[in-house]
Amino acid sequence: MDYPICAKNPLLKQLHHRDIDEQAARLSGYDQSYQQISKGSFVGTFSSCELDAELGLYFEATNQVLYQVGTVPDKFYAVGLLMDTGKPLIFNCESLPRGGAFILPPRSVMDGTSSPNMKICIVHVSGDLLRQAFQHQYHEYRPFRPEYIPYKLVTNAQDTQPLHSLLEDFLNGAAQGQLSLESANQLAAFKNILIETIGALFVAKRGHGRIRIRNKHHRLFHDALDIIEDNLCEELTVGKLCKELLVSRRNLEYIFNENIETSPARYIRVLRLNNIRREILSTEAGTLGDIAAKWGIWHLGRFARDYYQLFGELPSATRGSVDRR
Fold first, then answer.
1. CB-based contacts of 60, cutoff 8 Å, min separation 6
2. What's the distance, Cα to Cα, between the start and end of the chain in Å?
3. I want to staple 119 with a disulfide (CB 3.0 to 4.6 A). Which of 54, 84, 98, 109 is the partner?
4. Alpha carbon 269 to its chain's center
5. What is the pLDDT of residues 115-141, one digit of tens each?
6. Which stretches in the chain have pLDDT values below 70?
């Protein structure tokens, strides 16, 4: 299938971030939220290339463990490829290894924990564009409907290698100034091969199509997150959380380690620290002690220590960066 030649030439734009919320917002339309879990200063890059209104490439690299949640926009598919990682990504309660790929249909939830030194690409593609391509290439996808593939996970690197190679060539060519999409014909050719390569993932036999989204442990984990979010400013203990969920402490510890690789007690404290940092960055009102107390933290010495360990700077340094704006 040949796509219409477009007069507008796409550009690869790269931005560097030291704030997780700024990084999360770059994937426009996905309503992403990040919580930093591992210790140290956050450094991330986000590179984007809008090929046209129906097709975009987004490359993200992060250096910390992040708990991430997002939702695929209506009428679009998200095709993700884990290009590099320190260890497998926990994605919708499944393990996604280096070279693994996922296909998410419109309105699907992306939920998982990244690893340090993660590098991932999201291909944002409209259902209409896929439908046009598949009607020409794949008989089994006529008519193409979102319910045909509610979810697909491809874990065999052999199946994802063509897409991996194409995306690496795109990135390296752009970085070295060897990529030229200034010609409308070159742009149309690249879009053709990209959609064909994505199509091969849809029909890959290895991997699985209906993963166990929201199994019992995953549902309980999200119930716990909802309770934590609703009571974060109040006195909240793991014991109270277990009582509310009617689950033993041992089981709750296991569920948190399975889904986010940290304990519920540490996640509560990390979430509070993330929210304190957001408030410090967003307002000049209130003392640091007042802000910490609002989020249920009363020991200021321990607060400063924990804040420094998580973010690599003291709360006063974060406040200072706001004052210098």
1. 23, 26, 27, 44, 45, 46, 47, 118, 119, 120, 121, 122
2. 51
3. 84
4. 22
5. 888 999 999 999 888 887 777 665 555
6. 1-10, 136-150, 175-183, 204-215, 322-325
Which residue from 78, 38, 80 is spatially nearest to 62, judged by alpha carbons? Answer: 38
> Whole-angstrom Cα distance, residue 152 to residue 191?
22
CA-CA-CA-CA dihedral for 187, 191, 192, 197, to nearest 10: 140
Residue in this structure with the two tokens 């990209």, named with its chain if needed: 194
Strand partners, 152: 103
Q: Which residues contact 201 (CB under 8 A, 6 or more apart)?
A: 79, 101, 103, 152, 154, 159, 160, 163
Q: Are 206 and 171 in contact (CB under 8 A)?
A: no
pLDDT in tens, 52-81: 899 999 999 999 999 999 999 999 999 999
pTM of the model: 0.85
Q: What is the distance between the alpha carbons of residues 220 and 216, in angstroms, rounded to a whole number?
A: 6
Half-sphere exposure of 200 (CA within 13 A, CB side): 13
Structure tokens at 324: 């210098």
Instruction: List beta partners, residue 82.
Output: 120
Interhelix angle 216-230/264-282, nearest 10 degrees? 40
Element (H, E) at 221: helix 216-230
